[in-house]
Amino acid sequence: MNPTIILLPGDGIGSEVVAAGQEVLEAVADIFDHTFKMETHLVGGAAIDAEGDPLPEETLAACRQADAILLGAVGGPKWDDPTAPVRPEQGLLGLRKGLELFANLRPVKPHAELLSASPLRPDLLPEVDLLVVRELTGGIYFGRPRERRQVNGETQAVDTMAYTESEVRRIAHLAFQLAGERRGKVTSVDKANVLETSRLWRQTVTQVAEEYPQIEFETLLVDAATMHLITRPATFDVMVTTNMFGDILTDEASVLTGSMGNLPSASLGESRNRHGNPRGMYEPIHGSAPDIAGKRIANPIGTILSVAMLLRHSLGLEQEARAVESAVGETLKAGCRTGDLATPGESALNTAEMTKEIVRGMSDE
Ligand code: IPM
Ligand code: MG
Q: Are residues 228 and 317 in the same domain?
């Protein structure tokens, strides 16, 4: 197989973790006899600095042609001026929208070795295995108007939350289909006691649920969901929710695994690549982490597990995906930890060392 993979390091620790992901892709190519054509392009703050545009036309064009995309992170204090005309995040949102990646899959499954790295009581964690299905191209992230305006002599800011039935229906179908391949339960999260968009969301997801009688279905208000995620995390299978609630819930859910540095994600839509698989974008959920950027100590696991998702979903390489995932598991079992995972007294590996251990784990299999 000789697919084209676009690498978008972006900002902060993005380039450090994407370098780790690239190393793993090279090792996979080597071990399993594939040729991966990898091309690096600009996005986010790096693209603003170079071209004044967080999503240069040629980056989007390259992604449209690619078989899959691996992204690091965007954003940082350098571009945080609230009055700036362009922001790094627009690059990421532009990619999601431009590639119509309406579904963001964020699996949360703590490794047995890391239970003590989580702030939660370890007895709550062993059975946790959930998948957040976040709607990614609608809701308050994209609604119009979004503006500042003058009202009664002062500045008012407005964002708009909007959902159409068809947007809700397509993400709901995906959630039920995924639940059918897992433990058969869907929890839909909304704020239907207050928001009109949430009432439409709940009504539509409930209708879709009727087409999947074999799947257990429940709805939860988002405030209760944040609580249940830490009081009874093991009871969830697939959680389906809106763009903003999904953003918030997945940062919370990530600490069940010990660190948000562990969490991968896949963004998928209807578009298919040359291999007939979804042309997906894969990224760790952790963001650019300006506090540790440049120190080369970032945890590469979120990116490396994103590489596994890329191999599985966009390239159809299940065996290769499993090899990456089991190498991560074995490396953790062997006691290797990055700084975010090390408990007091444990020594920490840097990004390159951790990646080397994982690559070695793959070659040993
Ligand atoms: C995420 C991030 C992004 C989001 C930011 C960087 C725009 O937090 O992928 O979770 O809010 O979607
Ligand atoms: Mg986020």
A: no
